[in-house]
Each structure stands twice: as C-alpha cells, then as structure tokens.
C-alpha cells in the first residue's frame, strides 16, 4: 500500500482519492466512538425526556463552528453537518434508551 499524502502534496487524482478514502474510514471510526458515548448517555440518563437537551445541542454546534473557524474550514458547512449529526445522535440515543 502506498503512503497517503497530504492534500497539498497530491499530484494525481489517485493520490487525492486515496487520501479522501482514508479520511472517510477515519471519520467512520470516530463516529463509532461518538455513538458509543450516545449508548452511554442512554444508559445514564434517568428519563427519556432527558435525551433532548436543546442548550447542549446549541453548545455542541457552537463548539464545532468555533473549531471550524480556527481550522479555516467553512463555518456554515460545519454548522449544517453538526445540525444533522446532533439530530442523528439524538435519534440514535432515543432508540438506545428505548431498548434498555
């Protein structure tokens, strides 16, 4: 297997795609870790009504937007992605809570 190059070091689309594919695998692994925390939250929270926490949702999205700004990543895109991620996480946690 060839070395994965950084974006600026790529000279071919094969190199670009290899980097993107590796990042996608890394992101899925990170999502698995994140959803393990949703399982823990569903186990720890005392009531189903405690799953949705709008103040925490706002904080999580704001943290992601601040990190995007610091990294030079488009903030609006990150805000939209995190809106979807948090809502998916809430749905997952509700299902996990119902299973317990």
TrEMBL record:
Signal peptide: none
Residues that, per the record, bind substrate: 17, 34, 45, 93
EC number from the UniProt entry: 5.4.99.5
GO MF terms held by the record: carbon-oxygen lyase activity; chorismate mutase activity
Coiled coil: none
Keyword Membrane: no
GO biological process: chorismate metabolic process; salicylic acid biosynthetic process
PROSITE patterns linked: CHORISMATE_MUT_2
PANTHER family: CHORISMATE MUTASE
The protein's enzyme class: isomerase
Entry keywords, A to Z: Isomerase
Organism superkingdom: Bacteria
Transmembrane segments: none
Pfam families: CM_2
Keyword Isomerase: yes
Matches recorded under SUPFAM superfamilies: Chorismate mutase II (SSF48600)
Domain Chorismate mutase residue range list: 7-97
SMART domains: CM_2
This protein's name: chorismate mutase
């Amino acid at each position: 297997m060839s070395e994965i190059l950084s974006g600026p070091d790529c000279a071919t689309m094969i190199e670009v795609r290899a980097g993107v594919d590796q990042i996608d695998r890394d992101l899925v692994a990170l999502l698995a870790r994140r959803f393990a925390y949703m399982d823990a939250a569903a186990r720890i929270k005392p009531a189903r009504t405690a799953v949705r926490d709008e103040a925490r949702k706002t904080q999580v999205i704001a943290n992601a937007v601040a990190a995007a700004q610091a990294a030079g990543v488009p903030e609006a895109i990150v805000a939209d992605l995190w809106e979807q991620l948090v809502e998916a996480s809430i749905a997952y946690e509700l299902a996990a809570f119902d299973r317990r």
